[in-house]
């Protein structure tokens, strides 16, 4: 079995049970295309499986299964192959039915105008090439999209690692805050998990917690490391860090969604926090979670002017702040999370 005609041109599989029709069509098409013939559906499927085809020109009425079955087979298994259906004048309706089922065109027999036949086949070939090109283009677009998404994700991670490195360097300037952001992130993840938060939302809370004090980069070192009470001016200066952090995070497109966690981790439920004096639900839940984690770590860490607070006392203080400084529901989740075995390990 092989195609015959002009080498390198489109392959036309002609299917008809009448030898005279096959002969006429072969003679007509073989000087422009490559042609192969079959006399029934099973023969046609054999040809397709072995050699494929660019266009199948098939009679509708064949002995055994009809040309419509062949059409369905081609549409299912050969997405780049077009089908042109031949029917007798009497069955124009079934030609239209064939188009509805995915045939590209139809030809009425007997052929009055052979030029029309080759014209329709040529157009079917062009249509097939167009859809093939379009499909290839779509595939390329999909691959490019996937690559872009991957690159974006890698870039986002690289950013996070860079900023986390900056924060480590920042914390390293001060023995008392060393590891603070990492611990806050670990507590925040445990609290959020206890609230049923998972997946991408949980990852974002971890990232936001890592970044929450990023703005301390803009706080003067003498104020940051001061042993003893801060003056009003110094305290006001420290209070700018959520705004500075939010400004930095806002400049990085990949982090913009983390901005509320950075900006609002010092807000209070009663509206007496900073920088915006938001209250209750106005503060994003993730920021309310980080606020609890932040308070707990601050209390249980050693400070230049005091020893770390005992854990049970810190938990009691957190509990007492529920509904005024801290969100009561988050505090409840915090108390649950604090019973978990992993919780104590964060402090070490
Ligand atoms: Fe802070």
What does this protein look like?
The chain is an alpha/beta fold and 348 residues long. The protein has 15 helices and six strands. α6 (180-194) runs antiparallel to α7 (199-211) and α6 packs across α14. The chain has a six-stranded mixed beta sheet, with helices on both faces. It has helices spanning 19-29, 41-51, 67-77, 92-100, 114-172, 180-194, 199-211, 221-224, 232-238, 241-251, 259-263, 285-300, 311-320, 328-337, 341-347, and strands spanning 4-5, 11-15, 34-38, 55-59, 82-88, 105-109. It is 57% helix and 8% strand. The protein binds fe (ii) ion.
Query: What is the CATH architecture assignment of the largest domain?
Result: Orthogonal Bundle
Q: How many DSSP E strands?
A: 6
Strand content: 5-15%
The largest pleated sheet is described as:
6 strands, mixed
Topology diagram in text:
Elements lengths: L3 E2 L5 E5 L3 H11 L4 E5 L2 H11 L3 E5 L7 H11 L4 E7 L3 H9 L4 E5 L4 H59 L7 H15 L4 H13 L9 H4 L7 H7 L2 H11 L7 H5 L21 H16 L10 H10 L7 H10 L3 H7 L1
Parallel strand pairs: 2-3, 2-4, 4-5, 5-6
Antiparallel strand pairs: 1-3
This protein binds fe (ii) ion.
